[in-house]
Amino acid sequence: MTSLVPIDHSSIKTNQALVMLLPVLAFIFNWPWLVALTSVVMLIGSLLLKRPGFSFLYTNLLKPAHLVKPDVLLDHREPHLFAQGVGGVCLALSALGLVLGLVWPGWLLSWIVVGLAALNFFGGFCVGCAIYYWLNRLHVPGFTQSPPPGTPPGMRPGNSAYE
Amino acid sequence: MNEPLFTRLLWSLVIIAGAYLLIRLALWWILNRARNTAQHSSAIEPGRPTVIYFTTPDCVPCRTIQRPALQKALSQLGETFQLIEVNAYEKPELARQWGVLSIPTTFVLDSTGKPRHVNFGVAPAEKLIQQLKDLL
Fold first, then answer.
1. What percent of chain A shows pLDDT beyond 70?
2. Which of A11, A62, A91, A124 has its CA 20 to 30 A from that of B41?
3. Is residue A86 part of a domain?
4. A155 and B62: CB-CB below 8 Å?
5. pLDDT for residue B35 is more than 80
6. Model pTM greater than 0.80?
7. Nearest by CB to A124, which of B11, B23, B121?
8. What is the DSSP letter of B90?
9. What pLDDT sits at residue A153?
10. CATH code for the part of the protein at B5-133
11. Helix, coil or strand: residue B50
12. What is residue B62's DSSP assignment?
């Protein structure tokens, strides 16, 4: 099934940057509420708004100020929403663990999310998207999209939307 | 975990530095693997640096960005380096041996045929030229 749509990857990258930055700040200042807040923004983005949770920063601030250039690529939206949702759930579990006194597992979960966001931000590899595409390959219901042509599962697609 | 702020900051730096080192290690591993493959390649001419460019016919950024970037490098540096273009669809086994994860990917080899840089995704002309100049 192909439903490639133009997706601004700069918006996704802004989201990843915040998903890296906020839990690290939460760890440094010992602010579990910031982990919970990041989780809520990510889950709202995936479940309700159907876009990167922190994309409002890109749309309303970074893009109009020409601080970040648009990078529109033909891609599937669903794997990115799935990846963000998984990250949001992990951060929610992390915050829950911290509230319940499970300090090390709580922070470990946060750091795992930070690491995966960094892998996507710096390496262009989205682990959550790769999992989505593997589930699609296994014909799991609800995982309807297959990777864009010529793109390994989880890797950043190469096709510009303006070609 | 009620360590003071400084300790937590230090921990964060240690974790980030550790992750960075892991990434460097992974890149070193990829280059090392490519080195073994390069040793058995007859297409690489010794005596000048080589760029091995993995592409596919349907890769738009290859056509619109990567190829012009390589042309710019060729026009600036002339025949001081060799360019080998590989269609990953025609030679999937070769792409696998070189550890190509995405298209385009460019490997920059020194004059002895040893891979020194790998660029996953589009590599701008300036970056390629700098990588090649370091090897000339």
1. 93
2. A124
3. yes
4. no
5. yes
6. no
7. B121
8. T
9. 78
10. 3.40.30.10
11. strand
12. I
